[in-house]
Amino acid sequence: MKLDLLLIIVAVGISLPGSEAGVTEEQMWSAGKLMRDVCLPKYPKVTVEVADGIRNGQIPNNKDSNCYINCVLEMMQAIKKGKFQVEASLKQMDVLLPDSYKPEYRQGINTCKDSTVGLKNAPNCDPAHALLSCLKSNIKVFVFP
User: Fold this and answer.
1) Domain containing 73 — which CATH number?
2) Distance between CA 63 and CA 69 in Å, rounded?
3) Exposed, middle or buried: residue 98 (CB in 10 Å: 0-12, 13-18, 19+)?
4) Is the residue at 143 inside a domain?
5) CB 93 within 8 A of CB 31
6) Residue 41 within any structural domain of the chain
7) By three-state DSSP, how is residue 84 classified?
8) Of 95, 91, 89, nearest to 28 (Cα)?
9) 3-state DSSP assignment of residue 131
């Protein structure tokens, strides 16, 4: 239900007059907040402070944090069953990011395309940690809800 709401909000935001250049940063963060609000309650050991740290690029490597990251990445359609969904990520990037972010994110996504290869998703959501760490290392303007 919340994912449907997110998609509606993003679609409406993109189709508003004057928004032909893509979403604004405000719209991007609003969409991210919805994802965060869905995933945080699923992982009670991940506090708001830990989630804020992840958003700021401090990515802990433990089961709860990794699975929270996995939840958000799944909502973004960036990862599915521990596999990086490169084409879906590129499409979502076009929908969820302002135009000024896109060239660097496109390059980062392509650089990290193999970051989940050989990693098992269960039980610790390791591919999500590997993917987000790779993206953070390869994209100057790091964005994560």
Assistant:
1) 1.10.238.20
2) 10
3) middle
4) no
5) no
6) yes
7) strand
8) 95
9) helix
Judge whether residue 87 has pLDDT over 50.
yes
Residue 23's pLDDT band (boundaries 50, 70, 90)? confident
Residue 76 lies in a domain: yes
- The answer on pLDDT for 4 being more than 60 is no
Domain presence at residue 54: yes
In degrees and rounded to multiples of 5, residue 68 shows phi and psi of: -65, -45
In Å, what is the CA distance from 90 to each residue of 80, 106, 110?
A: 14, 7, 9
Tell whether pTM > 0.85: no
Higher pLDDT, 16 or 26: 26
pLDDT at 95: 86
SS3 80: strand
Residue 15 has pLDDT above 70, yes or no: no
User: C-alpha 127: how far from its chain's center?
Assistant: 13
Q: Is residue 40 a contact partner of residue 48, using CB atoms and an 8 Å limit? A: yes
Domain of residue 43 covers 2-138
> Other CB atoms closer than 10 Å to residue 11's CB: what's the count?
10
- Check pLDDT > 70 for residue 144: yes
Strands (E), the chain: 79-80, 83-84
